[in-house]
Amino acid sequence: MYKISKQFSFSAAHSLEGLPDDHPCSRLHGHNYVVTVHLRAKELNKQGFVRDYNELKVVKNYIDSTLDHRYLNDILAPLNSSAENIAKMLYDRFKPEIPELYAIEVSETPKTSAIYEPECE
After folding, report:
1. For the chain, what percentages of helix, strand and coil (3-state, to nearest 5) are there?
2. Per-residue pLDDT tens digits for 60-88
């Protein structure tokens, strides 16, 4: 199995619902997010790639136009704008056009990340 990944970044604000009032994430705050798309394939294409990294510009374009410098609560509603929900939303958005996609990882800080990977495809 061959695996590749590519990272994209964006900045956005959000607040998380359902937390105690004194929880810092219940207040409006922002992150410099890093999104990593993970692709895999049993065989390489004729160029020797899982997929050409240039073909992942669709992910960058979507992130730049839809998520960057936005209020994520408006975009993900009615879901909470957690890293886990962002990862699944991006997976669901791109899996149909990037069949090699098997996971999306979303990091809010250098020390934390959430990964969405379906159990079976």
Report:
1. 30, 35, 35
2. 999 999 999 999 999 999 999 999 999 99
At residue 27 the predicted structure's pLDDT band, cuts being 50, 70 and 90, is: confident
Short-list 63, 40, 37, CA closest to 51? 40
Q: Domains in the chain and their CATH numbers?
A: 2-116 (3.30.479.10)
pLDDT of residue 120: 66
Residues designated catalytic: 25, 69, 108
Give the pTM.
0.93
Give the C-alpha distances (Å, rounded to integers) separating 93 from 25, 49, 86, 89, 97.
26, 22, 11, 6, 8
CA 70 to centroid of chain Cα atoms: 15
Report the run of H or E that residue 103 belongs to, with start and end: strand 101-109
Tell me the two tokens of residue 84: 């886990």
